[in-house]
C-alpha cells in the first residue's frame, strides 16, 4: 500500500511554480514573461522606446552598455519605481474541481497583488577617449502574488514570491567616429518561496476511502541560486540626427536549491494511511531566455526626438517548471522531470515600442510612449500562477534640470491596458495524475510610477 500511494503522490506534484520582479513583483507589470520592463524612470517615460539607440543617462548599462561611450566623466543615476496593481478574480466567474471531480468551495482570491517599490542604481566612468566602464544594480526578473486563504484555485497556486537582483559590470569601446560596442556580465541572484494547498481527494478515490477521509495538505517550497548571463551591445550614430542600436542577452538558468515540505502527506501506517509532515531537499530549474533588442532614434526637429524599438525573447525555452527531489530516496517529490508531452510550453514574444521627447524649454522635457507587449502564455497554458495576457502600455514622463542644482530629475507614470478579460481555463495536463482544474476571469488595473536622479561629475 505504501509503495502505491507514494508513486501517486510523486505524480501529483508536478507543480507549475513560474515564480513574476521585485519585495513582491506584481505579474501585470511583466506581460513579457518574468521580465520587469521598468528599469529607470528616464526610460519608462517613453515606454523604453529606442533606449538601446539613444542613451539618456547611466541607466544605459541596463539597456545597451555601448551607450556609455556617449558620456564624459563619471555619471550616476538611481531611483525607485512604484508598482500599484489591483488584480482579482471575479467570484461569480470562478470555479474549480478537485481530483475526484467534486467542486472546490472558494472565491476568486481577492486583490492578490501588493504594492511594491523596485530600486535601481547605475554608474559609468570614462577611462579615456575610447574606453568606458560601468556597473548597474537592478531587478531583472520575478513574479509574486498572495491569494486569499479561501481562493478556489489554492491547489494550483496560493502564494509565490521571487526576489531577483542583478549586478551588471560592463565595458565599452568606441572608434571616436560614432560607433561603439560593449560587453558585460549580469550576475543574478534569485530567491523564491511558494506555498499551495494540496488536494488528496484523488488518493481517497484510489483507495476507496470516503470523501473527506484525508485533510487537505500544504506544500511549502523555498530555494535560491546565483546565475550569470552575458550582454552585448552596439551603438552607431548614423548621422547627426539618427542613431541605431542593438543589444543582446544570452539568457541563463537558475537551479533554485532549497527545501520542500508537505504537511498532511499520506503514508502507510499500520495498514492504513496516516498524514504526516515530510521534508526533503529539492531543486527548481528556471530557464531565463535569450533576448535581442533593436532601437532607433531620430531628431525630427530641433526640440523633438522620435524613438522606436523592439525586443524579441525566446520564452519558449521557459517551459513549466518541475519541483525535483535532491534526496537519495525521494519520498514526496519526483526525481526526474515529466515527459515533454506533460509540460506546458510558453511561446516566444515580441515587444514593440514608440516614443517621443519634446524639449519644452532648456530646463524641462516632456515624454510620452506606447508599448505593445505579447504574453508568453496562451489560453491553453494560462493558470492562476501565470495569468498573463497581451497588453498595451501608455506612459508619460518629464525631465527637469536646474531645480536641484546639477541633478537631473526624471518622473513618469504609466498604465497597462489588457486587450480583454483575462480568462483562465486551467485543466490537468494528464488527468490520470488527479490534478485539479480551475476557471475564472480576472479584473486587472495596473499602474506604475517612478522617479530618478542623475548627475554628471
CATH architecture: Beta Barrel
User: CATH first level: which class?
Assistant: Mainly Beta
- Structural class category: mainly beta
Order of helices and strands: HHHEEEEEEEHEEEEEEEEEEEEE
How many domain regions? 1
Q: Kindly state the mean pLDDT as a whole number?
A: 83
Radius of gyration: 24 Å
Number of strands: 20
Q: Identify the CATH homologous superfamily.
A: Outer membrane protein transport protein (OMPP1/FadL/TodX)
CATH topology: Porin
Short description:
By secondary structure, the chain is mainly beta. It is 5% helix and 53% strand.
Describe what this molecule looks like in 3D.
Strand 17 (391-404) and strand 18 form a beta hairpin. The protein has helices at residues 2-12, 41-44, 60-63, 201-206; strands at 74-89, 95-97, 116-128, 131-138, 144-146, 159-174, 179-198, 217-237, 242-249, 252-269, 272-288, 291-301, 304-313, 324-325, 349-361, 364-373, 391-404, 407-418, 422-426, 437-456. Helices cover 5% and strands 53% of the residues. The model is unreliable at 1-33 (pLDDT under 50). It contains 4 helices and 20 strands. It has a single domain, classed as Outer membrane protein transport protein (OMPP1/FadL/TodX) (Porin, Beta Barrel), CATH 2.40.160.60. Strands 1-3-4-6-7-8-9-12-13-15-16-17-18-20 form a 14-stranded antiparallel beta barrel. By secondary structure, it is mostly beta strands. It is elongated and about 80 Å long.
Amino acid at each position: 500500500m505504501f509503495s502505491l500511494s507514494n508513486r501517486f503522490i510523486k505524480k501529483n506534484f508536478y507543480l507549475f511554480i513560474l515564480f513574476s520582479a521585485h519585495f513582491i513583483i506584481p505579474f501585470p507589470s511583466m506581460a513579457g514573461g518574468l521580465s520587469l520592463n521598468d528599469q529607470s524612470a528616464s526610460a519608462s517615460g517613453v515606454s523604453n522606446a529606442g533606449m538601446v539607440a539613444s542613451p539618456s543617462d547611466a541607466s544605459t548599462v541596463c539597456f545597451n552598455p555601448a551607450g556609455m561611450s556617449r558620456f564624459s566623466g563619471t555619471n550616476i543615476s538611481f531611483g525607485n519605481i512604484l508598482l500599484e496593481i489591483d488584480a482579482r478574480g471575479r467570484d461569480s466567474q470562478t470555479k474549480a474541481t478537485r481530483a475526484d471531480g467534486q467542486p472546490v468551495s472558494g472565491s476568486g482570491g481577492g486583490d492578490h497583488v501588493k504594492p511594491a517599490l523596485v530600486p535601481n542604481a547605475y554608474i559609468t566612468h570614462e577611462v579615456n577617449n575610447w574606453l568606458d566602464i560601468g556597473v548597474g544594480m537592478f531587478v531583472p526578473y520575478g513574479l509574486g502574488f498572495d491569494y486569499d486563504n479561501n481562493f478556489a484555485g489554492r491547489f494550483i497556486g496560493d502564494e509565490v514570491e521571487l526576489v531577483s537582483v542583478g549586478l551588471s559590470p560592463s565595458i565599452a569601446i568606441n572608434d571616436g567616429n560614432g560607433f561603439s560596442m560593449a560587453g558585460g556580465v549580469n550576475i543574478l541572484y534569485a530567491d523564491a518561496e511558494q506555498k499551495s494547498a494540496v488536494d488528496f481527494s484523488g488518493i481517497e478515490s484510489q483507495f476507496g476511502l470516503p470523501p473527506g477521509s484525508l485533510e487537505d495538505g500544504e506544500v511549502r517550497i523555498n530555494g535560491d541560486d546565483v546565475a550569470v548571463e552575458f550582454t552585448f551591445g552596439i551603438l552607431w550614430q548614423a548621422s547627426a540626427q539618427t542613431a541605431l542600436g542593438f543589444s543582446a542577452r544570452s539568457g541563463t538558468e537558475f537551479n533554485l536549491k532549497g527545501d520542500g515540505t508537505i504537511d498532511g502527506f499520506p503514508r502507510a501506517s499500520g495498514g492504513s494511511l496516516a498524514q504526516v509532515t515530510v521534508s526533503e531537499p529539492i531543486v527548481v530549474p528556471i530557464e531565463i531566455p535569450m533576448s535581442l533588442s533593436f532601437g532607433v532614434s531620430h531628431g525630427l526637429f530641433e526640440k523633438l526626438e522620435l524613438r522606436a524599438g523592439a525586443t524579441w525573447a525566446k520564452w519558449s525555452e521557459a517551459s513549466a517548471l518541475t519541483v525535483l527531489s535532491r534526496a537519495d530516496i525521494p519520498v514526496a517529490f519526483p526525481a526526474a522531470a515529466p515527459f515533454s508531452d506533460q509540460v506546458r510550453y510558453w511561446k516566444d514574444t515580441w515587444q514593440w515600442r514608440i516614443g517621443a521627447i519634446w524639449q519644452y524649454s532648456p530646463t524641462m522635457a516632456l515624454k510620452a510612449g506606447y508599448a505593445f507587449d505579447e504574453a508568453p502564455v496562451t489560453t491553453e497554458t494560462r493558470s492562476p500562477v501565470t495569468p498573463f495576457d497581451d497588453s498595451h502600455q501608455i506612459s508619460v514622463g518629464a525631465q527637469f534640470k536646474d531645480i536641484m542644482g546639477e541633478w537631473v530629475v526624471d518622473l513618469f507614470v504609466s498604465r497597462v491596458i489588457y486587450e480583454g478579460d483575462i480568462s483562465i481555463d486551467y485543466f490537468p495536463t494528464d488527468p490520470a495524475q488527479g490534478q485539479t482544474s480551475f476557471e475564472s476571469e480576472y479584473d486587472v488595473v495596473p499602474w506604475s510610477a517612478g522617479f530618478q536622479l542623475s548627475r554628471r561629475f
